[in-house]
Design brief:
mainly alpha; NAC-like_UBA; Nascent polypeptide-associated complex subunit alpha-like UBA domain-containing protein
């Protein structure tokens, strides 16, 4: 069996690379939160607040969600309401259009049998794809891959 090629910077016997200093500082700050305080010890003054704040922000993920939420809160509420109403209206129109699509019972049977799904699911899939069985099956298979 062929061996997997390694990058040129990796050599046999090397230790794992050291994490960046910021990661170490964040890990140390987080570990101090888990430590049980001693009754004899006074308050910890050497806690790196900057590293602790960075670590706490990274706990939620990439931090991008908070930034997006903050940016979204700066948009006027009237604009938000208008956008939400427009999106709701578009969804309702799309749903009404989909419900109006006539689906052949034979196509439903073929799609349900070939894709191993219920007839209700096959009907919905066909409605999403304008009652075109070939298009619906291609889309289902492509989405599964």
């Amino acid at each position: 069996m062929a061996e997997e090629r390694q990058p040129a910077t990796v050599q046999e016997g090397m230790d794992a690379p050291e994490p960046p200093a910021t990661d170490r500082a964040e890990a140390k700050a987080l570990s101090t939160l888990d430590a049980k305080p001693d009754d004899d010890a006074g308050p910890k003054k050497d806690l790196d607040m900057k590293a602790l704040n960075a670590a706490m922000q990274n706990l939620g993920g990439s931090g991008g969600e908070e930034k997006k939420a903050a940016e979204a809160s700066t948009v006027p509420t009237s604009k938000k309401k208008t956008e939400a109403a427009e999106a709701t209206r578009k969804r309702a129109e799309e749903e009404a259009r989909r419900k109006a699509v006539r689906v052949d019972a034979g196509d439903v049977g073929v799609v349900a049998e070939q894709l191993d799904m219920s007839k209700a699911q096959a009907t919905d899939l066909l409605r999403w794809h304008d009652a075109d069985a070939a298009k619906a099956m291609k889309a289902w298979i492509t989405a599964a891959v």
